[in-house]
Amino acid sequence: MNTAIIKPQWSPLTIALMVLGFILFWPIGLAVLGYILWGEKFGGSAEKAQAYWNKGCGYMRNNKKTFGGFDRNFSTSGNAAFDDYRSEQLKRLDEERARLDAEVDAFHAYMANLRKAKDREEFDRFMGDRGGNRQGFGGDTNGNVQNQNNQNNWGNNG
């Protein structure tokens, strides 16, 4: 459900904000223009923006001949030994970049799992404080929720 007050589309409100932004301070107007043009692609979420950015970076990596400024296969120094050395180093760097990209992806997955575990722990603590129970989660064999807050003394004010 999209509950944004100002939607990224051409409307009288967004046009007025863009013009006002350009009048007050031009980067604000430029930011509003960018929001109007590309706001839907990001979907209003940091994860969607990061995914869109990664998709663009992947596209740029895969099309280095077009965007890199030069083509590795056709640019030579005139020295065959140096060209071989340079191609080996570029290959090694590409492998290192791929390894680092895989580590970044693994780290993001690890952090997502940590956030889920923290959310699950906070929800279980909330349900324990309320005296509620979750069927099949955090209870004993009789379905009673075990209150784990007594271990950390957060509830004691004295």
Please describe what this structure looks like.
With 158 residues, the chain is mainly alpha-helical. It has a domain at 7-44. Helix content is 65%, strand content 0%. α1 runs antiparallel to α2 (26-42). The model is unreliable at 148-153 (pLDDT under 50).
Task: Briefly say what this structure is.
With 158 residues, the chain is an all-alpha fold.
Specify the biggest β-sheet: none
Radius of gyration: 27 Å
SSE series: HHHHH
Number of helices: 5
Indicate the overall shape. Answer: flat
Mean pLDDT: 76
Q: Low-confidence parts, pLDDT < 50 over ≥5 residues?
A: 148-153
| DSSP helix fraction | 55-70%
> Based on helices, strands and strand pairing, what is the structural class?
mainly alpha
Gap from first CA to last CA: 45 Å
> What percent of residues are in strands?
under 5%
Beta-strand segment tally: 0
Tags for this entry?
158 residues, mainly alpha, 5 helices, flat
Please give the structural blueprint.
Blueprint: H1 12-24, H2 26-42, H3 46-62, H4 64-67, H5 80-130
